Amino acid sequence: MKKYWSFFRIRFIHGLQYRAAALSGMVTQFVWGTMEILLFRAFYEASPESFPMEFPALSTYVWLQQAFLALYMTWFWEAELFESITTGNVAYELCRPVRLYNMWFTRGLAVRLSKAVLRCMPILLFAWLLPSPYGIALPGDLTTWFFTLVSMVLGLFFVVAFGMIVYMSVFYTISSQGIKLIVTSLSEFLSGAVIPIPFLPDEIRRLVSILPFASAQNVPFRIFGGGLTGHDMYISLMGQAFWLIVFLIIGRAMERNALKRVVIQGG
C-alpha cells in the first residue's frame, strides 16, 4: 500500500505544476457556466412551470459541474497510457513490482484530483458571490453535505474505474480512437453532463437512471442541490456502490486476461 501512496503523491504533485493550464481552464469554465445558465434562464422564463428542477437548483448543478469538471469528465484520457500499450512501452510498467491495474488506478485518481484542486475553489467562490438565482445555493444541513461528499467519492472512483476499462480494452485492439469516440459520446450524454438527467423524457430518464453512467456527477450534484433526498437518495448511493464494484471487477478481469497472452513488439 505504501508504494501506491508514494506513486499517488508523485503524480499529484506533478499535476499541480500546470497552473497556467488550470487558469485558462477556469476562465473557460466561468464563461461556459455563465452561458449555460443564461440559456436555461431564457427557457425558464418562457415556461417556468414545465421544468423538473427549480432554477436555483439548476444553477447549483451547473456550477458544481464546472467546479468539479476534472473529477467527472469522461472525455479526459491520458494519451500516454494509450501510447504505452500500442507502442509496447507498457513492458517497462510490467517490470515494476506492482500490479498494473492498481498503479494506473492510483495514477488516474491523482491526476484528476490535482486538476480539480487547482480549479474548484475559485469557481465555487465565484458562483457563491453571484446573486440568486444565478449562483450556487448551499444546503443548510450537515446531512446533505455528508452524503454529497460520500457520493462524490463514489462517483470519482466510478469514473476512474470506467477509464481503466477503456485503457484495458486497448490491449485487445489495434487503435484506441474508435473506442474513445464511442464511449466518450455515450458516457457524456448518459451521465447528465450535456443535459441534466431530470430534463430527459420520462421513459428515457427512467432507463438512464439505472445505467452505470448516472452514478457519476448526476447523483452528488443533485443531492447537494436538494433534488435527491430520502429513499431516492439512498437508492442512488447504493446504485453508485453497485456499479463501482461491477466496473472494478470487469477492469481487473480484463487486465488479468490481457496480461496472460500479451505480446509486446512481437516478442
State the domain count.
1
Helix and strand string, N-terminal first? Answer: HHHHHHHHHHHH
Largest sheet: none
As a whole number of angstroms, the C-alpha radius of gyration is 20 Å
Number of helices: 12
Shape: globular
Instruction: Tell me the strand percentage band.
Output: under 5%
Computed structural class: mainly alpha
The number of distinct β-strands equals 0
Low-confidence stretches: none
Helical content class: over 70%
Structure keywords:
single chain, 267 residues, mainly alpha, 12 helices, 72% helix, 0% strand, globular
In short:
By secondary structure, the protein is an all-alpha fold. The protein contains twelve helices and no strands.
Descriptive overview:
With 267 residues, the protein is mostly helical. It has one domain. It has twelve helices and no strands. Helix 2 (19-46) runs antiparallel to helix 3 and helix 3 (55-67) crosses helix 7 (100-129). The model has no long low-confidence stretch (mean pLDDT 86).
Structural topology:
Elements: H1 2-15, H2 19-46, H3 55-67, H4 69-72, H5 79-87, H6 90-94, H7 100-129, H8 142-169, H9 177-190, H10 202-210, H11 218-224, H12 230-260
